[in-house]
Amino acid sequence: MLELRPNCEMCDRDLPPEATEARICTYECTFCADCVDTVLYNVCPNCAGGFVPRPIRPAVDRRTGVSRVHQPPGTKRRKLKYDLDDIRALVAVTKDIPPETR
């Protein structure tokens, strides 16, 4: 099940479970849309994959037992392990390659 991480790994912006500006890669790395668009250029600094909007888990049960009440979002905040120079170097050689061919 998707973890729904609580923050942008780059700028530490809060990304609550209902945030429409949250973006994730296939490994659930989580960033805000602003960082993805203006710093990362759709390149995950952890895996070099692309990003998609993070799905929004229902706040209330529309189906019995299926909502944030029963599957709460994650609470562990994440931070990048790479410095900005390393990220910029990866982005520079990757951003022009479509995610589906990286």
Automatic annotation (TrEMBL):
Per its UniProt record, what InterPro entries does this chain match? Answer: DUF1272
In Swiss-Prot or TrEMBL terms, this protein is called DUF1272 domain-containing protein
Q: Which organism is it from?
A: Sulfitobacter sediminis
